[in-house]
Write a structure and sequence with these properties.
It holds the Pfam family Aminotran_1_2. InterPro entries: Aminotransferase_I/II_large (IPR004839), HTH_trans_reg/aminotransferase (IPR051446), PyrdxlP-dep_Trfase (IPR015424), PyrdxlP-dep_Trfase_major (IPR015421), Tscrpt_reg_HTH_GntR (IPR000524), WH-like_DNA-bd_sf (IPR036388), WH_DNA-bd_sf (IPR036390). The protein is of the alpha/beta class. The chain is built from 17 helices and 14 strands. It folds into three domains: 86 residues, Arc Repressor Mutant, subunit A (Orthogonal Bundle), CATH 1.10.10; 108 residues, Aspartate Aminotransferase, domain 1; 235 residues, Type I PLP-dependent aspartate aminotransferase-like (Major domain) (Aspartate Aminotransferase, domain 2, 3-Layer(aba) Sandwich), CATH 3.40.640. Strands 4-10-9-8-7-5-6 form a seven-stranded mixed sheet, sandwiched between helices. It starts with a helix and ends with a helix.
């Protein structure tokens, strides 16, 4: 794997040719044909004959034959006597699938995405309101990994001072992408650095994929309990938004999706479905991937919080080594290491190239020091110790959260821990949630629409415990006071 870190990006599969200054004529023709294959210039799945290629390039047929040898050696084409060279079947099938999505989405790089702007819903002055809806507090983990992060930053600065890195890489520095490949291997995900894009934030990954693959006529499927609903992903890219229904146990019903013959992108968070804690069974995961591989379907697998799932069911990406269907979102999350937190997308090389073409530089390129620190954490295997510390801390925090909830709202509410990382869905069957939400003053929370319920008939609120323990305890006390009937 070390060799991958030193391999320039232009020397990937099908392009392992010498630099332009040293290329033979045959190598130069092979490079040009490779560019045409990447652009899908031969949609019928066949290259022109050797005679036609020789005439178009102004060379002998022997030179063309040597050029075709380069492409065949790298698996891009198959040749046979007295027949035109043909594209290898896997690539031709994937090209047709991908081009169908691109034609429907009318994707034309570069596009500029507007920044996501979420309105502040708090009432009163910020100093007097405890926000139990905030996604994550900057200091909530009490710096349990500060010493590891500090050491990683020192080594990262040393690496930068020695000139061992390239700051001008828009999809992540090569050494970091190679380290991510090694990091993924134990999870059954085989990837090359050219199939990795390092991104700044989770939301940006959703928007990038939607921008490239979704358009008029394409369907977007997602579970009722999904970040897609919360983020408002792809509302401007497609009008065909389809819900995957869930039962009371949190199991997703995929039957309606299987019946649909339209091209579609399915956005899934398969490791832990909120708020039940249910997970997609391994058999169903395998079936999902097989269905997607066989038709016009891509699956966007959000495994951002996978590290916290102690059961570690196989990821969808592990069933799709050729990356014909699954686009995998992984992370070294900020809740584990605020200094070196990154997200990354694993996908077919052509999709990575499209994502790179679609976005502003700040979408795909986290701060350089962040990438260097993440590289040091991965290469030193410090992430294992970080995770061990965090899990111990998280178990203790959940015990504390349970005791606070029992003491303050145990008499009139129901809940289950963990609903998902950092989140608690509190069921209040005897309360008017809409009225309760309007009456809040010194405490903020999210109403049950995030649970998939209509606002008018909601029975749940969402509270988050990713903030300092004292603030959480005080916030729940204020929430309990709000819920108590007035005399």
């Amino acid at each position: 794997m070390q060799a991958l870190a030193k391999t320039p990006p232009e020397k990937t599969r099908g392009a392992r040719l010498r630099s332009s200054q040293k290329r033979t004529r045959a190598e130069a023709i092979a490079a040009e044909l490779f560019r045409r294959l990447q652009a899908d210039a031969y949609r019928d799945g066949r290259l022109p004959s050797q005679r036609q290629l020789a005439e178009s390039f102004g060379v002998s047929r022997g030179t063309v034959a040597r050029a075709l040898e380069y492409l065949e050696r790298n698996g891009w084409i198959a040749t046979s006597a007295r027949r035109r060279p043909v594209l290898t079947p896997p690539e031709r099938v994937f090209s047709g699938k991908l081009n169908g999505f691109l034609d429907a989405s009318h994707f034309r790089p570069p596009l500029v995405n507007a920044a996501f702007d979420r309105k502040d819903r708090r009432n009163g002055e910020s100093t007097s309101v405890i926000d139990l809806s905030v996604l994550c507090h900057e200091h909530w983990d009490e710096h349990i990994n500060f010493d590891i992060e500090s050491e990683a930053v020192e080594r990262a600065l040393g690496r930068f001072a020695r000139g061992e890195t390239d700051i001008y890489r828009t999809t992540g520095i090569p050494a970091l992408k190679a380290a991510i490949c090694r990091y993924l291997a134990p999870y059954g995900i085989v990837a090359k650095p050219s199939e990795i894009a390092v991104i700044s934030r989770r939301l940006q990954a959703y928007r990038l994929v939607a921008e490239v693959l979704l358009g008029h006529g394409a369907e977007m499927w997602f579970p009722e309990l999904s970040l897609v609903r919360h983020y408002g992903i792809a509302e401007r890219h497609t009008t065909r938004r389809r819900l995957l229904e869930m039962d009371a146990d949190g199991q997703i019903d995929f039957e309606a999706m299987y019946f649909s013959k339209r091209r579609k992108v399915v956005f899934l968070e398969p490791s832990r479905q909120k708020p039940t804690g249910a997970s997609i069974p391994e058999v169903e995961r395998r079936e999902l991937v097989e269905v997607a591989r066989g038709n016009n379907t891509f699956i966007f697998e959000d495994a951002y919080c996978e590290l916290l799932d102690e059961t570690h069911l196989p990821s969808l990406a592990s069933f799709d080594p050729e990356k014909k269907a699954v686009i995998h979102l992984g992370a070294i999350p900020t809740w584990l290491t605020p200094v070196a937190g990154i997200s990354f997308i694993v996908a077919h090389e052509r999709i990575i190239n499209l994502l790179r073409a679609s976005a502003r530089r700040d979408y795909l390129n986290p701060e350089f020091l962040t990438q260097l620190a993440a590289l040091e954490i991965l290469e030193s295997h410090a992430i294992d110790e970080m995770l061990e510390r965090f899990n111990a801390f998280h178990r203790a925090r959940r015990t504390f959260v349970q005791s606070v909830l029992e003491q303050q709202i145990g008499g009139f509410a129901r809940w289950e821990l963990p609903g998902s990382f950092g989140c608690i869905w509190v069921e209040l069957p005897d309360h008017d949630i809409d009225k309760l939400y309007r009456a809040r003053k010194t405490v903020d929370f999210q109403p049950g629409w995030f649970f998939g319920e209509p606002a008018k008939s909601s029975r749940h609120v969402l509270l988050r415990y990713t903030l300092p323990a004292a603030d959480f305890a005080e916030g729940v006390a204020r929430f309990a006071e709000l819920c108590r009937p007035r005399a």
